[in-house]
Known about the structure:
The complex is a heterodimer of chains A (291) and B (396). Chain A is an all-alpha fold. Chain A has one domain (2-116, 124-220). Chain A contains 11 helices and 2 strands. Chain A has helices at residues 2-32, 39-55, 60-83, 94-114, 139-161, 163-173, 175-180, 185-211, 217-232, 237-257, 262-277, and strands spanning 130-132, 135-137. In chain A, strand 1 (130-132) and strand 2 (135-137) form a beta hairpin. Chain A is globular. By secondary structure, chain B is α/β, with parallel strands linked by helices. Chain B has 2 domains: 2-148 and 289-358, Rossmann fold, CATH 3.40.50; 151-276 and 375-395, Response regulator (Rossmann fold). Chain B has 13 helices and 14 strands. Chain B has helices spanning 2-24, 42-61, 81-94, 106-119, 131-134, 150-164, 178-193, 212-220, 232-244, 261-265, 286-299, 310-330, 335-342; strands spanning 28-35, 71-76, 97-101, 123-125, 143-145, 170-175, 200-204, 225-229, 250-253, 273-276, 347-348, 353-354, 375-380, 383-386. Chain B is globular and about 60 Å long. The A-B interface holds A 3, 6-7, 10, 13-14, 17, 108, 111-112, 115-120, 126-127, 129, 131, 135-138, 210-212, 214-217, 219-220, 252, 255-256, 260-261, 264 and B 36, 38-43, 176, 202-205, 207, 209-210, 212-214, 216-217, 232-233, 236, 240-241, 243-246, 259-260, 263-264, 266, 308.
Amino acid sequence: MQAALQYIFSGLAMGGIYALVALGFHIMWSSAKAVNFAHGDTLMLGAVLTIMGIDAGLPLPVAAAGSIAASCIFGVLLERFAVRPFAKSATSIGWMLTTIAVGIMLEALVTMEFGGFSRPLPSPGVSQAIFIFGAGVYPQELLIPVFAIAVMLGFGWMQRRTLIGRAMQAVAFDRNAAALMGINVNFVFALSFAIAATLGGAAGILIAPVTQASSTMGLIIGLKGFAVAIIGGITSAPGVVIAGLAFGVIEKFVEGYISTAAREIIGFSLTILVLLIFPQGLFGKREVFKV
Amino acid sequence: MQRLTCPLYLAAIVAVGLASTSAFAQQEPCIGNSGPLTGPAAFGGAAVKYGAEIAIDEINAKGGVLGKKLRFVQYDDAGAPPRGVDNTRRIALADKCIAIFGGYHSTVGLAQVDPVNEIGIPYIGTIAANTKIIENGKSPNYMFRVSAKDKWVAQFLVEQAIKSSKNGKIAFIYENTGWGNGAIPDIKAAMQAKGKELVATETFNWNDQDMSAQAIRIKDAGADTLLIWGLDREGNQILRSLDKIGYKPTKIAAWGLAGNLGELAGPLANGVRVMQTFSWMGEMDGKTKALWDKIQKKYGLKDPSDLKMGSGTANAYDAVYILAKAIEKAGAYDWKKVREALYTVEHDGLVAKYSPAFDKSNPERQDAILPQFYKLTAWHDGKLLPLAQTPYAVSQ
Lengths: 291, 396
């Protein structure tokens, strides 16, 4: 019982990380119909820049704010130069390669500047584990899924209630019609990438005390985050969050009751199985492309 | 027809070129090294460079070897075996270096075994500890090492574990890589030699963020001592997962945890014992201090803790001296003669007293540093100190 509880807590923390990455994919997809495939590296950028800021003598809040701002700018530049020229129509796929390329370049650059070692991001949230019915968890770990749910609710509210949110949905539905209605499509694209990157940078800072910051930290979480986005249905924010948390918990139970080595095999088998049964993801809406 | 013959000419020229290098057998006074200069293990390349260059500077200041000044030539392999093989050929055939030093990654070292023995250039490992790099079954074997050997490390760690364990139950957790998997048979054999079995054997992957499942199983097995075969990043996650389930076994690790575990895990790292061949931390003796001052000055390091994988630096430093003595004994910059001379070198080094450095009659003794020279260090308040200088020495 205590072990099961431990797996649930640890799984929610890991799942929260996947959910945060998957939400980034959702935000980009839900207006631009394109994503930054290397979104995991945006989290890495947020975490690494914060530590570099602290190294340079800045206080933590300033370093964090600076790195979130830098992540936002990164998102805008990425959209402008690596996505927009390659996503002229809804069926273009050039952006897949270009965003992956940017991610690899970013990783190499960070390795040169930041070094190859993992570095800790100090936080009071990981100094002492708290025990709930005998299962230990760091407060920081609990914060991750909470933050993911908050982002999900906030973005959902924005989509439904604000003009810009509706514009994003309109652009996603039909970019040509939206443009004819007077919506600045390019601005909406840039905005969605900026929001995703800003949240990504913040998420990176949030998870770094748990995962440690390193140039390669974005790779696996980016990949799993994308898998989770597809399983949950990339068009549904609650879908990707539920899928993310569930994926994290399932992984822990596989590790706990079957074996550590079986984790990826079972995890990705489940991914394929879900897609066979629900091609749009568990909570996704069917999307119609007009040719 | 013209098209076909052209490559043939080229091949002929290359073949003549290759033949001529071995015919004249006069190599250059340089020491080559293939190691990670970029990527996550770049510190491993730097560690070797520091030790080798300082030793070379010292030797050159006294006039070099056989009247020639030594040089150090380092190429990047980023941990990729094919690049390590390319670099090996480049060092041996283009630069014609008298010897090649091994780098950080065992996978690269294993890939170098064949080209090194085909070409016949003496290779001296300085970090990578995989047993089969040296015990490769080749004869004549050009692979030597002035570093730890996993087989002996396993025996050393198991001995320490048995000494510190109260209930005799020892568990093992290792990374799922060439290095980690290579250690399982060594650890099991070392346990068996002591008439014991591991109560739990667990594994993890690079970048895993949580090891609570493994930690719970190890705890359930009743182990009071845990052997760890992994690197700092995952080592930190192991410590955190142990902490989360409120379980405090004695932790004894191979030298993968000799990097920045103290920084990553903070107080949780306190008391983790790590095997090393050398420690730059804590109180230094005169010789070490003088050497550290040189390293500090030349490479702008602030604190000994900036010297990651410092064992590699000390190993490379000793390896240069052993090689220099062998060249002098051989009386020529000649691969074959130097290889023979390596078996006769006596040297009182930084890490160990080598008498002789290598033993021709024993294939196990192409490794120079015997387990009796391995050192146990322990993390204490962010520093990895010799065990005797920590509060954990008494509990041994």
